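Ticket #4471: structure output looks truncated?

Reporter: J.K.
Steps to reproduce: submitted the chain below (268 residues) through the standard prediction queue, then opened the result file.
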Amino acid sequence: MKLLKQIFDFYLNSSIHVALSCYALVRVTFHVFHLQYDEPMALFVFFGTIVGYNFVKYDALVRVKRKPVGNQLKIIAVLSLISLVLVGYYFFHLKRITQIVSVVIFAITALYTLPFFPNRKNARNWAGVKIYIVALCWVGATLVLPYINAEVPFIPDFFIKCIQRFVLVFVLILVFEILDLANDDPHLKTVPQTIGVKKTKILGFLLLIPFWIVGILTFTFHELIINLIMVVMLMLFIAFANSNRSRYYTSFWVESVPIFWWLMIVFL
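Returned output as attached by the reporter:
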């Protein structure tokens, strides 16, 4: 049992689970726009997420806090290095415009982590900005990149789906911020720190209204039912979120929402 828990913790700590969530959203993008499955694009996002998230999570731990590197962190470092090589491999299978946009997304991720400006904190510590940067990066990686790599014309539905994807990620991050309220630096000015937990939950519920309306405007009846299930699921995650919840509540269950979305599209 202890071994299974260690394997599961490694699965979460190494960002494989969040990478699978991003991969699932890429597959959702292929489905909603009727695009042919593009394996290099999907795997580029999958391995890129592992690299990006591990860089964000462990850079400060090693570079700034200089904590001892344990065995698990060494294995994660090896996994991240292998993923970086694969990211480079799949990068050269993408269209030129996709490569340019992906570099921009990487630059935003680097800005989020590293203090580029003298006497300035990184973007992760800029008051009130974190949630928007993360949501934009997710939209860029899981929707914009697959769409432009398919070389299809921009249509109004593309921008509507971008808004919907942004709302989805924004709401998921709200749940994370509620659980992290007790540990977050007060200067971060996260949404729960600024308006309180109760109002944050109300905000999350209200944001699900445009998420649902977009579904009414653009999806088939089958997808509309799936979106309704998604809305109910997200409402429950928001309603039961509190700072006393186990870390698995967000790091596994909440981050599984995009995976559930993809699986419902495939099997329902």
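Triage note (M.O.): checked the attachment and the full token line is present. The two ends are 33 Å apart (CA to CA).
Status: closed, working as intended.
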